[in-house]
């Protein structure tokens, strides 16, 4: 993730963030918060061979290669692979960043219920309490109706399970096109291992091998030294994220843009919506919050309270009124092309 310091230049928009953090003495401390852009990460991928590039080829003996066979017509076969170039049985384009091969199962035409095909176990004892992103590209064969699901199962007391469900079709709702499925969370405090499973979600075709999977990843990041403001540059949505490893107790925040790239009308403040005011639902704080910045300000979004709000580690608060955008950050230039820049009026 490209992390920008408080006075980092984003095009000509210089943004600064600060959090008013509750302390043990009766003063309001200010801790610097970082600025991050959504969709980028420095985290480590714990899954090995999630792109299935390590294999013995189509119809090869792919036993091993970091995946363990659970079910198949021949338990010596862990998985089979198709070529993204010459054996394209899904619709549309190959996933961005994919290699030469993608996963499919071996000879499960008689299987009519969901079953685990292969799995991989990883050690998470050294990253407990840290944020993770579990994702995969999933597709299926349209005529056969086959597709896949993936499980991420932790060995904590609650057996925490995260599911990527390919039967939904993903963003476009079409099961036979490649779509990224992703879920985020925090590694459970009492977990030592996690098991990643690929399952045959449906088996309605004659050979039952038409569930396609690629780019399986489990990225686990390190704890941030301070809370961050996260901006989605595609939608303009802004959120406060706490991945510090501990609960964040805070009384307010301020987001500033020197060049006026903020849109107050798209700002969903805590005040009046998620506080303890008449119109608030108290989901963030049961005391009333107050907006400090001007209603139409393009240069600052700020609010606060005398009470203390708590944001758990791994949680975030969205500050955007419109889910999916447009949000309160205005992208007014093209990345790498400042000649198209138009300063907002």
Descriptive report:
This protein is mostly beta strands and 345 residues long. The chain has two domains: 154 residues, no CATH class; 177 residues, Jelly Rolls. Helix content is 0%, strand content 37%. It has no helices and 22 strands. The strands form five sheets. Strands 2, 3, 4, 19, 20 and 21 form a six-stranded antiparallel beta sheet that branches. The chain has a five-stranded mixed beta sheet with strand order 1-5-17-18-22, with no helix packed on it. A five-stranded antiparallel beta sheet has the order 7-10-15-12-13, with no helix packed on it. β2 and β3 form a beta hairpin. It is elongated. It starts with a strand and ends in a 27-residue tail after the last strand. The relative contact order is 0.17. The N terminus and C terminus are likely disordered.
How does the SSE layout of this entry go?
Elements: E1 3-4, E2 9-10, E3 13-22, E4 28-32, E5 34-37, E6 44-45, E7 68-69, E8 80-83, E9 101-104, E10 115-123, E11 131-140, E12 148-154, E13 161-165, E14 179-186, E15 193-200, E16 211-220, E17 228-231, E18 238-241, E19 248-257, E20 290-291, E21 300-311, E22 316-318
Parallel strand pairs: 5-17
Antiparallel strand pairs: 1-5, 2-3, 3-4, 3-19, 6-16, 7-10, 8-9, 10-15, 11-14, 11-16, 12-13, 12-15, 17-18, 18-22, 19-21, 20-21
CATH superfamily of the largest domain: Galactose-binding domain-like
In which range does the helix fraction lie?
under 10%
CATH topology of the largest domain: Jelly Rolls
Could you say how many structural domains there are in total? 2
Q: DSSP strand (E) fraction?
A: 35-45%
Q: End-to-end span in angstroms?
A: 31 Å
Number of helices: 0
| Low-confidence region ranges | 1-16, 21-41, 333-345
How are helices and strands ordered from N to C?
A: EEEEEEEEEEEEEEEEEEEEEE
Query: Architecture of the largest domain in CATH?
Result: Sandwich
C-alpha-based Rg, rounded: 23 Å
CATH class of the largest domain: Mainly Beta
Structural class: mainly beta
State the major sheet: 6 strands, antiparallel
Q: What's the overall average pLDDT, rounded?
A: 77
Structural shape: elongated
